[in-house]
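Please go through this chain and its backbone structure tokens and walk me through the local backbone shapes. Keep your notes short.
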Amino acid sequence: MKIDLKANEMVIRATDTNHFIDGSGKIKGKLILTNQRIYFKTTNGDGVKYDLEIEPKAIRDVLFFNTNFIFPNGINLVTTEGKEFRFTVKQRNCWGQMIAGMC
């Protein structure tokens, strides 16, 4: 997988993740946090349809949720437009602090 970084952009953190999409279930991919934005890249070849890029100024809230009601590994990014992007991540507290620090 290759990601085209912008000028002066560095990867801060990356992890394997599942992106929960209403109506489509969960999509496997990579969640990549850089010093300028957040990327989700699918690993199953549906990149055109599911890949996304979120700029920090577009994030209104960073919320946590539990998957399967017991596993504390979910992070929900709510944009200023009201869209929600839900991911599973390891060390969600660290991810949440880093993302909230960018906003």
